[in-house]
Structure formats: structure tokens, C-alpha cells
Amino acid sequence: MIKPIEACVHCGFCLPTCPTYATMGDEMNSPRGRIFLIKETLEGRMDPSDIEPFIDNCLGCLACVSSCPSGVEYGELITPYRAWSEEHRERPLIESLQRKAILHTIPHPKRFRVASKLAKIFKPIARHLPSGFGAMMELAPSNLPTPSTLEEIYPAEGEQKGRVALLVGCAQQVLAPRINAAAIRVLNRHGIEVLVPQSQGCCGSLAMHIGEAEAARAAALENFEAFPDDVDAIITTAAGCGSGMKEYPHLFAGQSSDEIDAAQRFTDKVKDICEYLDEIGFAPPETANGSETKVAYHDACHLAHAQKIRSAPRRLLSTVPGLELREPAEWELCCGSAGSYNIEKPDTAKELGKRKTANLQATGADVIATGNIGCLAQIEFHLQRAEKPLPILHTIELLDERYWSQS
Questions:
Q1: What is the phi-psi region of residue 64: left when phi exceeds 0, alpha when psi lies from -120 to 50, beta otherwise?
Q2: Cα–Cα distances in Å, from 284 out to 187, 190, 318, 336, 368?
Q3: What pLDDT is stored for residue 1 in this prediction?
Q4: CB within 10 Å: which end of the chain, N or C, has fewer?
Q5: What is the pLDDT of residue 177?
Q6: pLDDT in tens, 364-381
């Protein structure tokens, strides 16, 4: 944790890109403010309980990392500090129950499906419940798609050029199984065989980012066993999952040498779907589908800031005939989803969600594309409450649709 603290020169370039500073205007709710607070706490000049509210307010979006001229890796500070803090603090009963509910439902698709159906029933009384539980009810989808089971192997079309393993994800496979289906079709079309390990589970990102390091490591270890070594890449269609899996070397720092090696080997193969297609040589659809479609691209924080992937999805979309890219204002600001943040801090999340939705609508686009299920669900929630709602799709869905339209 020391390196990011020493690297920060408190210049303030992070302030306008930080969603909590942008909405609260409070120095202690900014990256440099939190760095100062953590430093004071680690050096014994402040009690950890004094800074807990400011640490909890952080979305972990890492927009500050993108804007920092000194190269401060804020994620290498906030994630381990949260893990340390959770071991030394006692949360109020309601908060504790809420976090347990999150950790024991969202990472487990069958439980999450049941919980979503129950939440729908309790939606009418959401405003009468404690804020976190009320947010769970309010954000629950009105309808869930039919459960979808994926086969273990999807052969490449034509000459096989590669072989990858697909991380299915937890909430995404319940809320939008169409995303993984689209990814498999596009990969197969490019001559890539897709393996779907049947014993895979949650990647652990949700637990990692709220300070539950042991739960995150346990989830990661299961996937080290489930995913084979003889694939070219481990593909994810969710930015949050990809970001978390690329953090495994930090998560396993200080663990056994075998676990550290396994974490590094796994991480070295993790690729976002757009990142991978861009690297292997994307073959776009050959013809346009009717009139030109204006697409507003939303940068998921854990794709743009954490994984440094902004150009790849834009390159893919810009090569498709009939698609015109539109860029929203304040692209760097988080939409307010941030894993479980829109449940734990619903008021701030709503403010950010409305702001993001307004910026996307202002582009005059016909459709929105993004690379993360959390962003998609958050923005869709606020779009449904807007005067002129827009459709929102995962980037790979939009690409897949264009292939089908030319067939």
C-alpha cells in the first residue's frame, strides 16, 4: 500500500474525474483526500473508524488513475486497504446483513435468480425498507429472460484459428444470457473454438472490491482449477470481471508461491472480448443494414480506467458499415453501478446514473453500446425513467446483430 501513497504529489488532477468529488464537492471524498486519510491512519495519527465513511463512498472506478500525471496506482491502495479495514471493523447490523445478502446471492446465479424474483414482489414497498435493501428491490428487473445453459464446446466455423475459454459470469448470465451467446457466435465466426468450463464459478471481483479478500481468493482458486492451461485466452464479456481477474497477482500477494504463480498464469491469459477480437484481426460485416445508426459508446470504468481499453471497442464499431460513433460528455465519470455500489450507496448512484444517462441521450444517438453488465443494467434503469428511452446493448451484441442482418 505504501507505493501509491508515496507517488501521490497531491496535484489535484484527479478531482474533476472523481465521481464522489464531482457530486459531493468534498476534498475528503476525492482520491488525494483518501490517500491522505489512509496515510494518516497507517501512521497512527487517525483511527480507522474516523475515515470509514470516506473510504466507503469511493466507487473504485479508477478514473483518478487515468487522469494522474504521476502514475499513482490508486487501485493498489484502495483494494488492500478495504481488505485490511474489513478485518478490523464492526459494521452496523443492517449494513452487515446487506453485505452478506450481496455476497451470498449475486455471485451465485441460481440464488440470484430466486432473489430477483422475490425482489420484484417487494418492489411496491421498497421505499419503506432500509436504503440498501430498498435499492435491491428497486433495481430488480421486472422480467428475467429464460434460463440459458451453455454447452461445453462451440466449434469454430471453417478453419480453426484459435481456442479460448469463456468466463460466463454470475449476474450477467441471469440478467442477459444473450451477451455470452453473441460472443460465442462472433468468436466462432472468426475461426475461434470456444470452451465453456462447466465447473467455473464467480471470478471473485465483487468480493475483492468490497474488501472480502478471503472470499475473492477462494473464488479465484476454484477457477484456477476449472480453466484449462492449453487455451490461447480466457475471454470475459464483463469489464468488472476482467478487471478483477487482472488484479489476481495483487490479490494473492503474500500467499504461497504456488498460488502466486497460478494467479499470474491465469491473469496473463485474461482478455476482454473486444480486446481479443481487436488483437486477432476483426472481420467486420461487409454491408450496412439499412439507414445509418448512431451509436453512443459508454466507457465502462473497469474497462477504460482499470484495463486501459478504450480504443479497441471503438475500432471494432467504427469498422462496421452503417454505424456512426458518438462520444458523450464526461466519458470518464462513473455511471454509479460500480459492482454493488448502487445498492450500498443508492443516493449517490442515482445522481451519477441520471447524469450519465443525460450525457448519453445528448449525443443524439439511436442506441448505446457498452462493455459491462453492471453499467448496462444501471443505465437501462435510468433510461426507462427518461422521456425518450434509448436501447442499450453490449458492444458484442451490436456487432453480432450486424452479422445476422447481412445474412
A1: alpha
A2: 12, 10, 9, 32, 19
A3: 63
A4: C
A5: 96
A6: 999 999 999 999 999 999
Other CB atoms within 10 A of residue 94 CB: 13
Q: How many CB atoms lie within 10 A of CB 163?
A: 17
117: number of Cβ within 10 Å: 13
Q: Which domain holds residue 18?
A: 2-88
Report the DSSP pairing between strands 153-154 and 367-370: unpaired
Q: Which of 174, 398, 177 is nearest to 296 (CA)?
A: 398
Question: Which element (helix H / strand E) includes 195?
Answer: strand 192-195
Same domain, 184 and 259: yes
Three-state DSSP state, 378? helix
Contacts (Cβ under 8 Å, ≥6 apart) of 254 = none
Claim to verify: residue 399 and residue 292 sit in the same structural domain: yes
For 286, the grid coordinates are: 461487409
Overall pTM surpassing 0.90 (yes/no)? yes
The domain that holds 268 is classified in CATH as 1.20.1050
Low-confidence ranges of the chain (pLDDT < 70): 1, 287-290, 405-407
C-alpha cell, 261: 504463480
Query: Side by side, which strands form the sheet with 233-236?
Result: 153-154, 192-195, 162-167, 233-236, 270-272
